[in-house]
Amino acid sequence: MYTFFLIAYLLIAICLISLIMLQQGKNSDMCSSGAISSTTLFGSSGSDNFITKTTGILATIFFIINLIIVNITANVFNVKNKKWENISESTKNFKNIKTYENINDIPK
Known about the structure:
Blueprint: H1 2-22, H2 34-37, H3 46-81
């Protein structure tokens, strides 16, 4: 299951990068190839709308899969290591530390 989500995550990341690179900038309407852009596959303004919607959908799926992968990884980590069962174990080393209340008591 983890491998499936990881592969889907990587494929969606590659698609997102490709779609973002294909998007035109805000001032791209002023380019000299205006006549060429009207004969494209999606029409003059259709590609912007299609690519923008697809990018949004893929970004949403990207974040959902990211949360699923993090959840799977966190559950596997907690089951295998069980580090957080007795958290007071890690504070035992700090009980023997000498503290100084006055700055003049610190050895030089």
